[in-house]
Specification:
This protein is α/β, with parallel strands linked by helices and 552 residues long. Among the domains are: 130 residues, Rossmann fold (3-Layer(aba) Sandwich), CATH 3.40.50.980; 130 residues, ANL, C-terminal domain (GMP Synthetase, Chain A, domain 3, 2-Layer Sandwich), CATH 3.30.300. 35% of the residues lie in helices and 20% in strands. The chain is built from 17 helices and 26 strands. An eight-stranded mixed β-sheet has the order 5-4-3-1-2-6-7-17, with helices on both faces. A five-stranded mixed β-sheet has the order 10-11-12-13-14. Strand 1, helix 2 and strand 2 form a beta-alpha-beta unit. Helix 1 packs across helix 2 and helix 6 crosses helix 7.
């Protein structure tokens, strides 16, 4: 499948330079080719999330006036038509599924207005006329604070970010990258399209999350960014049981000790030699572990998209898997980055070179750089609200900045809970403490307009009906930890009750974004009955109360 051929096909159907062309398909090499084809036609890729239902794609396409679209399968095309998208002389749908390359099948288009012989030179002419300020793509925000917004990113912003990463942060190549993050998302596109194009890296497209573990071992990526859930699964693989954490240091020491016992004449070995042997064997075991996981050739391992639990990061570091945190949003893609020789626990790193950050009076993180988004397409009011002063972008995140320039994200500004007595509480720090408990997946603290705080908690895996004892054990562990947390904070911040759900949140139900962020509105709406029950009188409660004598 040729990008130039598809680009010529669009030009032949009368698309105009700068026109929006949709792309709604799962990750594949054809997705990348179609994206490049749209760019070659002088147009703007509107990257619809493949997890979106067809109704949502049709509605957004109508709002943005998208007339042409590429889809991943005939079934997707049918879904769009069933939801009212009419393809005809004014619009086309190109299916990029395997086997349709020769025909370049489309629905509802008339005779080509321009032949291929004329279209290719026109593509080359458009490519030379591209200006930095022109739009390259529209990428939608995750919608954790409401409806997704279409973020316009320019060619200049993409080039600025890629050059900054190449010159100052990317380890020496050649590089192999595994494309598993959605290409419709900003970070997925950066790591699987923009950066590899400039660097000449090899990109391997994943078949899906169920294949990820085997694919990492096969590809052996040199740079890998995992969302927190990926790293949690890696760590969970080293847990002895759902209720007992794996002691990585103990395991490594045990392996070393067994190896030492095999050494002949231990008593005659000097202390210095024994220390050297122990250190060497420990390093060897870590190297073997990295190879077993497929990270033995990785030069940079990152976590992003959501906060990585401290316990997971500590455990992985003990095993020699040095996962570091990064931070960014659709609007700036990458803002802060940790490096192996420049990182601090609990921090998302320092701002990229060329990026300036500041903390507003209310604690909001402000960002300014040359790769910021241009606007929220079709929403001038939201664009205006996102700006502050002279070119600053309001991230909506609460943060702190230390004297050495390291940034710590403490929560979302909009996530602040205002109780019925007027107290304001940031839920994320409390949720982070709860999620540090072994066996806990996500925690959502609620209490907006209520007299006190409560929390919904999910396990790391579904709790089956016959696992009542395990559920009781996890509840007891949560209750004990929550009481310790409550004893160290103000009364109005204390969590008075918890409700343990039977299974983790799922993106398929709209509870999580594709990158693992909790959609608070969706969660509180879905579990409204469970939340209400936590505020009933104690005699009616079906959950765990954390009230203590003397607490208020």
């Amino acid at each position: 499948m040729s990008a130039v051929r598809i680009g010529a096909w669009f030009v032949g159907r009368g698309v105009r330079e700068g026109e929006l062309i949709g792309l709604w398909a799962p990750n594949s090499d054809r997705w990348i080719v179609a994206d490049l084809a749209i760019a070659s036609a002088g147009c703007v890729t509107v990257a619809f999330d493949p997890a979106w239902p067809a109704e949502m794609v049709v509605a957004e396409a109508a709002r943005l006036n998208v007339r042409h679209i590429c889809v991943g399968s005939s079934a997707q095309r049918t879904e769009l038509e069933d939801r009212g998208w009419r393809f005809g002389s004014s619009g086309t749908c190109l299916t990029i599924e395997p086997g349709v390359d020769d025909a370049l099948q489309a629905t509802g288009f008339g005779a080509s207005r321009i032949g291929a012989a004329e279209a290719v030179p026109l593509l080359k002419e458009w490519a030379t006329q591209r200006r930095p300020e022109q739009a390259a793509t529209l990428i939608f925000t995750s919608g954790t604070d409401g409806s997704p917004r279409a973020v316009e990113i320019s060619h200049g912003a993409v080039c600025s970010l890629v050059e900054s990463l190449r010159k100052s942060y990317l380890p020496p190549g050649p590089h192999r990258l595994l494309c598993y993050l959605p290409l419709a998302h900003a970070i997925g596109r950066l790591l699987s399209v923009y950066l590899p194009l400039r660097e000449g890296a090899s990109v391997y497209v994943s078949k899906g999350h169920t294949h990820l573990r085997a694919e990492i071992k096969h590809v052996r990526p040199t740079v890998f960014l995992g969302v927190p859930r990926v790293w949690e699964k890696v760590w969970c693989a080293f847990e002895a049981s759902p209720g007992a954490p794996f002691d990585a240091q103990h395991a490594l020491r045990s392996g070393v000790r067994r190896a030492l016992e095999m050494l002949a004449d231990q008593q005659s070995q000097s202390r210095r030699l024994r220390h050297r042997v122990t250190s060497r064997l420990s390093s060897l075991l870590q190297a073997l572990l990295l190879r077993q996981l497929g990270f033995d050739q990785a030069r940079l391992l990152l976590s992003g998209g959501a906060p990585l639990r401290d316990g997971v990061q500590r455990g992985l570091h003990t095993l020699g898997i040095k996962v570091l945190e990064a931070y960014g949003q659709t609007e700036s893609i990458v803002t802060c980055l940790s490096l192996p020789d420049a990182w601090r626990r609990g921090s998302v790193g320092r701002p990229l070179r060329g990026t300036t950050v500041s903390i507003a009076e209310d604690g909001e993180l402000l960002v300014k750089n040359t790769h910021l988004f241009t606007r929220y397409y079709g929403d001038s009011d939201a664009t205006e609200r996102s700006r502050h002063g002279d070119g600053w972008f309001r991230t909506g995140d609460q943060a702190s900045l230390d004297d050495d320039g390291y940034v710590r994200i403490t929560g979302r500004k909009k996530a602040l809970i205002v109780t019925s007595v007027g107290r304001k509480v940031a839920p994320e720090p409390l949720e982070s403490l709860l999620m540090s408990i072994t066996g806990v997946g996500h925690a959502v603290v609620v209490g907006e307009g209520r007299k006190h705080l409560t929390a919904l908690i999910t396990p790391t895996r579904p709790l089956l009906p016959h696992e009542g004892a395990l559920k009781c054990e996890l509840l007891a562990r949560i209750q004990a930890r929550a009481q310790v947390i409550n004893a160290s904070i103000a009364a109005y911040e204390q969590i008075k009750s918890i409700h343990l759900l039977s299974e983790p949140f799922q993106s398929g139900r709209g509870e999580l974004t594709q990158l693992g962020k909790v959609r608070r509105e969706a969660v509180t709406a879905r579990y409204a009955a469970e939340i209400d029950a936590m505020y009933l009188d104690a005699a009616l409660r079906s959950h765990v109360s954390l009230d203590q004598p003397g607490s208020s």
